[in-house]
């Protein structure tokens, strides 16, 4: 018997279950796998032998369809950082024990670059010890910061949420005829891709965010205040989009004055409050009405406004990773290669996971305007196809249907 | 010639343009009105003779359809408080001058209780001075706090956004297996209707918000911390919904420590930060992971998740107000009378605007549980029909189409 284990890790997205469904569809189409198990809470479920029987839990096509559009990791997630096997072989042995106990030959891990680090380390361990397992990664991250893939599953849906929300906020903030600044804080510690999506609100002729500051470029308080003043001279309602991770030229986070200083298990600093810091700055320096808005958890969980392009690609990436595994590949991640923008065409490829793990793909400086307060046409051309299409989400009693595995 | 003037006022909603469309449809169906003007920025447009020709600007059915689903006041809004005519007759005379100049006989004002105060004062002025104008109100407010109407246009859509968002956040916060508290702050200074909608996330079997605190009931920090601890004993991910306007037993706002202290033109205190204050409290008293989320402007502008029930009722209320005006009514507001919950049936009525102006309808104490941390079945039965139905919103280039009048 050749069974398969699948798990999800890292921060939630609205497309991560579509990738899981892609794996399940691959299994059903291939006939090469008997049982599919899901590890609860990512790699922790593999370590602790905490598995769900997905053949039992997701039986019919309707369940697969609903799961596709259910946000956040249906199998749960974790932020467990694997040590090198030479430092902590015990953990690796526990995983292999789980594999052996359940006749698992294939393992697919859906996640971001921390998860790809796990795939990398685990496949290296298997290789060094001549263990015959096929360990594959499937990408996921709203941040869109994975190396070797044109873009990341979950990003297009978050971008569609941001573009839609900014276009709605534009209507909202322009009803009064008095000067007012609204500062929208968007996720992104080191990569400004999501913030750039604020420009997409312009696709139908709106102004979208009037000023856009990505975390890749040094942020300057004085230049920001001048930009806002210049824009207020043109129109009363000014909409600003900023990355949560904007920093000044010394590398200090703008949010630092309101940050809690806490760090997560990977040592990432917990950042919140750049918009609030700038709200205070505008109040002090300009004195007009000003409001900070955080898109917070909504931007990564708003499945009701998911991009169908994103969902379908996420599903294909799950299938691609699965097909790789059953064809004898290991230590690879499924990825997207863009062939053209217009018409939008992509192909699905496999890339070495070692070149994805622990890398971050940030926005090229050339895609930010020289003034540092907007994005270029290249960025728009890159982003536009990713938000296309609306999903076939079903509603029940007025809210979207969801499928829960536990 | 008998022309009509229509205007919108107060805070934006996603249904306020549906009511405008209802007026325009009424005009087209009646044949009793020649020209329709829209006053820019509410009553200020009438005072300053700043009008838009809506016969020109909204010509075809497609424009009407797109405008129906466009969020926020397409005519702009204001927060202008009319003084009594005995104190400031000049303003009233300017409005009458505008009426005369454009042969306006009917005026329909779409707004909340401050706008109904304007309708009340202006119609009283016309009556006292024997001026033959028909001044009617059409309701609007996400807060759902207008007197004499079962519920308010805009509320059902905001409630659908909140129910959907809470159900998505429930998925998001439950992926990790560690204790974490998420506190969602929802609009409502004095009326907790919107916060109650957090319970609607339960309609399909979810837990929705685990704890719900409305601003009608005194908020007690110690009881809150005990409630959260009790809930954490049952499950790791605890979701809390609070009204922005929660106050302690002395009437002091929980948010006061982070409030800017600013007030708007109506003397309403600007409140923001109750969730942030409680976030700090949980960090201090419990010490677990905790996050504040504000639904902020999104809850009143998220047209992409509008309730079709709300949009259609909002449209009917515009028609009802228009029909009243051309049938010789004045000083009335169109309103909804609920006939039954299941099946959901309503009728549209006219009510005296003087009994709406300057009143606030808060949540009955009997619809909050005795513990003060949830809502009752009566509240659920009241809310459930209001979020039903999805709109026929059109998308273009991946984001919702909008119709702009200027």
Question: What are the salient characteristics of this protein?
Answer:
homodimer, 406 residues, alpha/beta, Rossmann fold, 13 strands, elongated
Order of helices and strands of chain A: EHEHEHHHEHEHEHEHEHEHHEEHEE
Strand order of the largest sheet of chain A: 3-2-1-4-5-10-11
Helix tally of chain A?
Answer: 13
CATH class of the largest domain in chain A: Alpha Beta
* CATH architecture annotation of the largest domain in chain A: 3-Layer(aba) Sandwich
> Could you say which structural class the secondary elements and strand pairing of chain A correspond to?
alpha/beta
CATH topology term of the largest domain in chain A? Rossmann fold
- Strand-residue proportion of chain A: 15-25%
Give the strand tally of chain A: 13
Shape of chain A: elongated
Characterize the largest beta sheet of chain A: strand count, sense, and whether it forms a barrel: 7 strands, mixed
In total, how many domains does the architecture of chain A comprise? 2
- Over all CA atoms, what is the radius of gyration of chain A? 22 Å
First-to-last CA distance of chain A: 26 Å
- Find the biggest chain interface: A-B, 60 and 60 residues
Unreliable spans of chain A: 259-266
Q: Which oligomeric form is depicted?
A: homodimer
Question: What's the rounded overall pLDDT mean of chain A?
Answer: 94
């Amino acid at each position: 018997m050749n069974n398969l284990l699948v798990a999800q890790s890292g921060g939630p997205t609205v497309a991560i279950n579509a990738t899981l469904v892609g794996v399940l569809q691959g299994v059903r189409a291939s006939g090469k796998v008997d049982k599919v198990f899901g590890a609860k809470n990512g790699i922790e479920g593999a370590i602790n032998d905490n598995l769900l029987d997905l053949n039992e839990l997701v039986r019919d096509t309707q369940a697969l369809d609903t799961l596709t559009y259910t946000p956040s990791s249906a199998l749960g997630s974790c932020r467990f950082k694997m040590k090198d096997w030479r430092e902590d072989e015990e953990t690796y042995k526990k995983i292999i024990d789980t594999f052996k106990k359940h006749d698992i030959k294939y393992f697919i891990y859906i996640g971001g670059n921390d998860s790809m680090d796990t795939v990398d380390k685990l496949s290296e361990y298997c290789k060094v010890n001549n263990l015959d397992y096929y360990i594959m990664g499937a990408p996921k991250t709203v941040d869109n910061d994975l190396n070797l893939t044109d873009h990341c599953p979950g990003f297009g849906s978050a971008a569609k949420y941001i573009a839609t929300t900014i276009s709605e906020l534009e209507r909202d903030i322009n009803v009064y005829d008095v000067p007012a600044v609204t500062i929208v804080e968007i996720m992104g510690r080191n990569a400004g891709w999501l913030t750039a999506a604020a420009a997409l609100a312009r696709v139908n002729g709106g102004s979208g965010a009037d000023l856009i500051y990505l975390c890749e470029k040094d942020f300057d308080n004085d230049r920001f205040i001048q930009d806002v003043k210049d824009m207020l001279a043109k129109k009363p309602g000014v909409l600003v989009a900023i990355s949560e991770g904007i920093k000044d030229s010394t590398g200090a986070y703008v949010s630092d004055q309101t940050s809690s200083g806490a760090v997560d298990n990977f040592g990432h600093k917990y950042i919140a409050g750049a918009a609030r810091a700038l709200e205070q700055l505008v109040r002090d320096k300009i004195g007009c009405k000003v409001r900070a808005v955080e898109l917070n958890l909504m931007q990564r969980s708003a499945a009701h406004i998911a991009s169908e392009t994103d969902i379908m690609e996420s599903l294909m990436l799950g299938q691609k990773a699965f097909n790789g595994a059953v064809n004898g590949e290991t230590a690879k991640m499924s990825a997207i290669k863009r062939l053209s923008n217009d018409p939008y065409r992509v192909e699905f490829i496999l890339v070495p996971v070692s070149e994805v793990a622990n890398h971050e793909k940030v926005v090229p400086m050339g895609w930010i305007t020289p003034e540092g307060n907007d994005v270029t046409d290249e960025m728009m051309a890159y982003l536009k196809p990713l938000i296309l299409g609306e999903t076939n989400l079903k509603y029940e009693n007025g809210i979207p249907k969801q499928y829960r595995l536990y």
